[in-house]
Amino acid sequence: MISRIKGTIVGIDKDRCQIEVDLANGLVYQVYVSPDLLSRVSLEDEISLFTYLYMQNEPSKTILILIGFSSPIEREFFELFTTVSGIGPKAALRAFSKPVSEIATAIADGDEKYLCSLPGIGRQRARQIIAKLQDKIAKFALLKPTQAKQKERETKEEDIFQEAYEILIQLQYRKSEARQMIEKIKSLDRSFESVEEVLEEIYRRR
């Protein structure tokens, strides 16, 4: 039983990664991942995944499929999701186009519309998911965003602050003044989604 895999991403396809785990001998595993996870990785990333192994039976052969998750609790949520009638491992994985915490919250809230926005989930299936899982989902809805997502948001916000700083220079503020303005805004206990929000806050606090 393969329960975890760690290595370097050497290939990315539409629904899977190739992970090299043995540099000396070139051992590479093909691991299926969710669309959400796939959107957060790149070639040559070092990655550690918690895996789920299942057998896919075809008319003339049986194929072993390895699926990877960012954490054990995401894997547990996947296993729970597949207990819904008609949802197999590949269908469940395809549906995970959004973060697990968001999907779990939608189930807990009985949000059919949100669930229907997931790939392969129609209205009847959404109702089945809610009926089967609604009272089992609380801990998954409490999941925090992954470190990768958090890092992505922090990087985006730094880019916003840098652009705001450059605009202040163009508006003929001295570098020291512009830097002081930006640092003051950074110290606030809030996040910013655009340069305009930063500049509006600076103007409001003049």
Map the helices and strands:
Layout: E1 4-12, E2 16-22, E3 27-32, H1 35-38, E4 46-58, E5 61-69, H2 72-81, H3 89-95, H4 100-109, H5 112-116, H6 123-133, H7 138-141, H8 147-170, H9 175-186, H10 195-204
Antiparallel strand pairs: 1-2, 1-4, 2-3, 4-5
Helix pairs in contact: 8-9, 8-10
Whole-number count of domains: 3
* Number of extended strands: 5
- Number of helix segments? 10
Spell out the helices and strands N to C: EEEHEEHHHHHHHHH
Q: Mind telling me the CATH class of the largest domain?
A: Mainly Beta
Q: Per CATH, which architecture of the largest domain?
A: Beta Barrel
- By CATH, the superfamily of the largest domain comes out as Nucleic acid-binding proteins
Spatially, the strands of the biggest sheet line up as 3-2-1-4-5
The name of the CATH topology of the largest domain is: OB fold (Dihydrolipoamide Acetyltransferase, E2P)
Radius of gyration of CA atoms, rounded to a whole number: 22 Å
Largest sheet: 5 strands, antiparallel
Low-pLDDT parts are: none
Overall geometry comes to: flat
What would the keywords be for this entry?
single chain; 206 residues; alpha+beta; OB fold (Dihydrolipoamide Acetyltransferase, E2P); 3 domains; five-stranded antiparallel beta sheet; 47% helix
Structure description:
The chain is an alpha+beta fold and 206 residues long. It is flat. The N and C termini lie far apart (62 Å). Strands 3-2-1-4-5 form a five-stranded antiparallel β-sheet, covered by helices on one side. Helices cover 47% and strands 21% of the residues. The chain has three domains: 4-69, OB fold (Dihydrolipoamide Acetyltransferase, E2P); 92-141, no CATH class; 147-204. The model has no long low-confidence stretch (mean pLDDT 88).
